[in-house]
């Protein structure tokens, strides 16, 4: 492990190489400062956080971690900065300090993720505290954890520069600072782009996730890295690359539909969240999210911790995890896509909504018998088109930036930019028919018709026997 102290000042960055794992790494790939952060237990924890959480139970190859993703974003951030420096370095005043801070932000942007990545933030914490979504984000925890690492390991980085790295990390979150407060604002759009969503974080995980899951991807991030140009303190792209930018957003949406929100992936996630909730009071899982010095101790191994605990207090949690191990998953009943004209005022469907829609008296459903997954898939900007926030230029010598509307490129591009999908599961196999019928009744009550396109499990069974 690297043990040292040094300062980072504008124009006075370390140029040494880091000796790690018995090999001397090239200066351009890993500076001493980056090594100082990587060789901490807080960063090494990312080796025990799967990038795609529980997706590997459906896509066996999806076992890559936040560790290699973070190294990939560090590399791509460096490529983006090198391209800008080579083409516009003098014009923009890009110096080695700028390059290093952007790369550090790429390296450290995900250190605040909890167990099983987004499941912890978007599924578990809101169930513990419904108001948690307004108080907590992994970007904000990354910034808090960064402060803790600097203090604990004595990394002597000046406060002003540490502040810039943290602002770059939270640039796309609700904790970002106002745009007007930032010098060289284009630097803040490289790792986590709050303006239009085009950033090297997506470049890396789209390629990495597609490859790990055995899916093809036509998105070519190198075209955008090579073509980007800063005009008016904003990163712009050649007009000829409009469809490449569009492909970035649609590929991401396809991954959400086919991988991240796969029906069986969501079934397993719902089960693990139930297990974590059962274990929360005894293990104080949610309390760790309030303190960065305790938070870094949480990772995916918490499942083994629950399984191997001798305590009776964790019996229910262990039973749920055992069901996951034995593939006794919550049973998928059905799903429907929210009609386009109902998207604006749509509210998440709850288990109570399903139970209250039951008409048959054969089986009396309770809320704890039903699990609901409300899936939102968009192009990063909700119902808005993110391409409307992207600026383009005609050629490399042009200093004029402009927006491009879809109809000037193709009439085949989709007119709607968001899907909302409601999926319902029965926690016990014998309740599938009752939950399915209640779900149909809910659709009839809300929309006057059944909007699902799949048969109910009972009808599927009947058609097979015929």
Automatic annotation (TrEMBL):
The name this protein goes by in its record: Uncharacterized protein
Species of origin: Avena sativa
């Amino acid at each position: 492990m690297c043990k040292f102290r040094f300062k980072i000042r504008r124009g006075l960055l370390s140029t040494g190489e880091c000796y790690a794992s018995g090999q001397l790494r090239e200066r351009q790939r890993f500076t001493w400062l980056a090594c100082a952060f990587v060789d901490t237990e807080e960063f090494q924890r990312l080796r025990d956080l799967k990038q795609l959480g529980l997706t590997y139970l459906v896509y066996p190859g999806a076992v890559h971690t936040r560790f290699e993703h973070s190294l990939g974003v560090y590399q791509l951030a460096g490529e983006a900065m090198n391209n800008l420096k080579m083409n516009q370095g003098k014009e923009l005043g890009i110096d080695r300090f700028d390059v290093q801070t952007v790369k550090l932000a790429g390296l450290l942007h995900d250190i605040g993720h909890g167990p099983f990545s987004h499941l912890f933030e978007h599924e578990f914490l809101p169930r513990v505290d419904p108001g948690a979504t307004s108080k907590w984000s992994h970007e904000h925890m990354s910034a808090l954890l960064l402060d803790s690492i600097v203090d604990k390991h004595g990394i002597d980085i000046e406060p002003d520069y540490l502040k810039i790295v943290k602002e770059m990390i939270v640039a796309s979150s609700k904790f970002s600072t106002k745009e007007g407060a930032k010098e060289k604002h284009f630097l803040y759009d490289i790792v986590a782009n709050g303006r239009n969503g085009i950033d090297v974080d997506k470049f890396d995980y789209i390629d990495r996730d597609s490859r790990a899951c055995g899916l093809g991807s036509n998105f070519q991030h190198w075209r955008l890295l090579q073509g980007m140009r800063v005009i008016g303190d904003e990163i712009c792209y050649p007009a000829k690359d409009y469809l490449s930018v569009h492909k970035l957003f649609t590929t991401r949406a396809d991954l959400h539909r086919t991988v991240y929100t796969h029906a069986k992936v969501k079934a397993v996630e719902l089960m693990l969240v139930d297990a974590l909730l059962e274990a929360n009071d005894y293990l104080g899982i949610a309390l760790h999210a309030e303190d960065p010095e305790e938070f870094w101790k949480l990772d995916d191994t918490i499942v083994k911790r629950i399984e191997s605990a001798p305590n009776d207090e964790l019996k229910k949690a262990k039973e749920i995890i055992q069901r996951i191990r034995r593939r006794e998953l919550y049973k998928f009943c059905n799903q429907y896509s929210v009609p386009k004209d109902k998207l604006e005022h749509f509210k998440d469907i709850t288990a109570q909504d399903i139970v209250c829609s039951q008409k048959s008296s054969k089986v009396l459903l309770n809320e704890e018998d039903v699990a609901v997954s409300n899936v939102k898939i968009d192009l990063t900007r909700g119902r808005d088109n993110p391409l409307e926030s992207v600026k383009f230029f005609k050629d490399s010598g042009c200093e004029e930036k402009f927006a491009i509307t879809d109809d000037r490129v193709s009439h085949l591009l989709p007119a709607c930019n968001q899907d909302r999908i409601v999926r319902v599961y029965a926690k016990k196999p014998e309740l599938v028919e009752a939950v399915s019928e209640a779900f149909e009744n809910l659709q009839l009550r809300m929309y006057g018709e059944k909007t699902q396109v799949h048969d109910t499990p009972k009808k599927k069974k009947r058609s097979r026997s015929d």
